[in-house]
Fold this protein.
Amino acid sequence: MALSKLQRLEFAIGLRDNASVKVAKLRASLSRLNESVTSQVTGIGAGAAGAFGAALSVQQLVAPAIDLNRALGEVASLDVDGSALKSLEAEAKAFAVQYGGTAADVVRASYDIQSAIAGLKGNELAAFTVSSGVLAKATKADVATVTSYMGTMYGIFKQQADNMGRAQWVEQLAGRTALAVQVFKTTGNEMSSAFTAIGANATAAGIRAEEQMAVLGMLQSTMGGSEAGTKYKAFLAGVGNAQKELGLSFTDRGGNMLGMVDILDRIRGKFGDTLEVAESDALKKAFGSDEAVSLIKLLLADTKGLARNIDTLGKVQGMDKARQMAARMTDVWGRLGGAINVVASSFGQVLLPPLEVVGGHIVEVLGTLNRWIGIAPNLFRWIGYLSVASVTFAGVMGLVAAVTGIGRLALVGMAGPLKLVAVAFGLLTKVTGLQTAAQWLLNSAILANPITWVVLGVLSLIAVLGDCLGWWDALKSSLGDTAWGNALVETVLAVIAPFRAMYNAIAGVMGLFSGSASAPAMPGAAPDAPSVEPPAPVASLEAARTPVVPSAGLMREGGKVFAKGGNSKTTTIGTVNITTDKPMDAALMKEQLELAAG
């Protein structure tokens, strides 16, 4: 009994209903798992973020104080006493409030000063440090360069600095250098390079600091600081021999070298305001270098200006000029940043002592833990394995939650496109319905055409003739070679012979038996058939064939089959278990078997 479409649909729906309960439970379980994992991961993230944020807040609160204390510790390593450190810290904070920056940077600059100038006492280190910082700000130089410059200048003018007082001398030096940068075409870096090149040669010759600075400053109007120092050094080296060659005296009664203005005045008295080629050669021979002649030519043109600059620099006693220039280099926002840093440093220094106590205990605990690890390494190895496993599992669960969330977002994002697809399918369904109606109309039109029925009749005739071929040979064999049988066969052949040509022609045109080696042909064929040939050779009706109908007759052979129990084979496919809540009868069993087999 064939199953109807409705029965198959009911069977499929029953299977789906039985599975949907378990699928729904599975989906609910997965949903609860996802919600639990998401909640736990969120809690872990929030807790970790809170702990990290708290630690970061505390660290940011005391960071300026930690930085300042570290800088003070670096300076203390150079055997600076406590009172000097206190003075340095106070001056560094005052500098940061006044000119911006951080107090820690100011303190670190003192490390190089203390290394270059040994024996600084009391507030001397703070004075050197603050003066260097102010000069660096005033001359647009970096603190490291100015600090090195201060060390170099102290080495050159050590005796003068010690006699005057180091703190007072360094403030005077900062003021004079700031003025030189303002008056001459130079910078703090170039001035440092100039004094580095000349070294202590001018000081050894008894030349005052303000004169050296004026000469080097005026030379830098046409050259760099290092070149200016080199030319000045060459001039000083040739003065002793030059006075003999030129017949001029460049020293006073005590044998000390005259000032640069006096030497230039005496050269002008001998050669005039301008130097000819021969006179330049004479000067080169006297001083021994082109560098010295270049210095004389440049300064000889403005000896009055040189004298004025020397006098101006000599009048500077403090660093007011440097402070004024530095203040103009600083805006209110820089000062505000410095003030905030100072307040944070001072407040953090108050908080650090108790925090350091707690930190010390934590360090002790960690040290004890490190000793335990050394004592029982295998135990801590397994603890480490468990920790790694826990973190890994947490990561996997977090990944599960992430993937689930991505899937949900993807479904949300696909909601719009899926609606469009549904609309498209609805339109397609309507179009399909219209197409089906059109097809029905086309079929009706074709069936209403008389030509259609002619073609169908021809095709039916072809089908009937084709079926005749199946039993023709069997019928001819069953009749035997009797006279009346042969007469009957010949009569049948004569009747159907006219249809042979039409059959073969239609079969050839329509390709009904194309490619078949045993295509059937109309019985009663003659050797001289019409010109239309079949697609394959037609076997002769007289050829020996196996009879389709048994010689004893269909009924007799059927009786033999039933008497023997049939010739079919039995195949075991296993055990079929059918469960039902109704009493099992023959009709119900048949229905269940048909549903299972369908």
